[in-house]
């Protein structure tokens, strides 16, 4: 189970419409609750944390969007689904998958990267804390 992650500091969509946020974002967190960014790493208006069903409100993605963060699996989707959806929405940058401790991390990472590369996405995976 994914616990609190340090990647996001401000409540999602606070005070801004998705259309505005989508043009200012550098990082989008999908399906990970209770996240915070380390102080000084990104301005609050440059990051958002959303539910999977809100993803279409944020596309097309602005060129400033550098990173999307998502869990390996959750109640709404898994990493393979998010890779496919992001590819369909035209995202071609970095995707960071947050995963629990896995018995054979390299096998999972290799499988995810094989799918991501077909979508033009660069993928890395970090362990949940």
- Mean of residue pLDDT values: 82
**Overall geometry:** globular
Please report the number of helical segments. Answer: 3
Q: CATH first level: which class?
A: Alpha Beta
Strand order of the largest sheet: 2-1-3-4-5
Which structural class fits the helix and strand makeup? alpha/beta
Largest sheet: 5 strands, parallel
Element-level helix/strand string: HEEEHEHE
Helix content: 10-25%
How many structural domains? Answer: 1
CATH architecture: 3-Layer(aba) Sandwich
Which ranges are low-confidence, i.e. pLDDT below 50, for 5 or more consecutive residues?
Answer: 1-22
User: How large is the radius of gyration?
Assistant: 14 Å
CATH topology: Rossmann fold
Q: Give the oligomer, counting copies of the same chain as homo and different chains as hetero.
A: single chain
Strand content: 15-25%
Secondary structure: number of strands: 5
Kindly, what is the distance between the CA atoms of the first and last residues, rounded to a whole number of angstroms? Answer: 10 Å
Task: Detail the topology: elements first, then pairings.
Layout lengths: L17 H7 L2 E4 L16 E4 L16 E5 L7 H10 L5 E6 L5 H15 L2 E6 L2
Helix pairs in contact: 2-3
Features of the shown structure:
single chain; 129 residues; Rossmann fold; 19% strand; globular; disordered N terminus
